[in-house]
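ZP: hey, is the zinc ion complex queued? I don't see it on the tracker
AM: it wasn't, my bad. submitting now with these inputs:
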Amino acid sequence: MKQLLIAPSILSADFADLGREIRAIDEGGCDWVHVDVMDGRFVPPITIGDNIVKAIRPHTNKPLDVHLMIVEPDRQLDAFAKAGADIITVHQEACIHLERALQYIRSLGKKAGVSLNPATPVSTIANVMHCVDLVLLMSVNPGYGGQSYIHAVTDKIREARKMLDAAGSNASLQVDGGVNASTVNEVVTAGADVIVAGSAVYSKPDYAAAIAELRELGSATITG
Ligand code: DX5
Ligand code: ZN
């Protein structure tokens, strides 16, 4: 049985004090640090570039889980790898040559992730199971923290879990968007083994307590 991993998203952190905000979730018991990179094109906002990833790298030894919500991600893979990302996730919708992008991430010595927007079917990644270390299902339309979980995605989590198991894949199944104390059980029961939580951690006064609560509520049901 896999252990549930908690990846707080720094999108909801205080950007003026990112080093301290990252050390706080590290000491608070997070498993990964989720970094939301947005380019103002794939999604409306602009957030974090490779220079910020490089700047935060010394503040934690935990894996930096970099979620690229950008067009033409191929152009940025070298930069984020060099900056210190451990996992690099591209969107299926942004990649014309998805298999090549995933293999390239692996060739850089990084874990390769693929993400799907809520409206994109799980079947669109069936033919890249052999080169995927992480599948990230968006459970909100990407771009903003603090949105509500889209319950229609729960069926996609079940479907992705079946697909990974059938392929004999050991890839992580991560869910991102609107995951909090009310929804974590549904997400994990459906088969997720990594949850991203932005506002559910960073809007709380005690990050360690928020992480522990998510872990406890989710771990009771983990099946992946
Ligand atoms: C949304 C980002 C998410 C977001 C999650 O575009 O990919 O990682 O920060 O935020 P919450 O947990 O607040 O929905
Ligand atoms: Zn994200």
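AM: back. The radius of gyration is 16 Å.
ZP: great, adding it to the tracker
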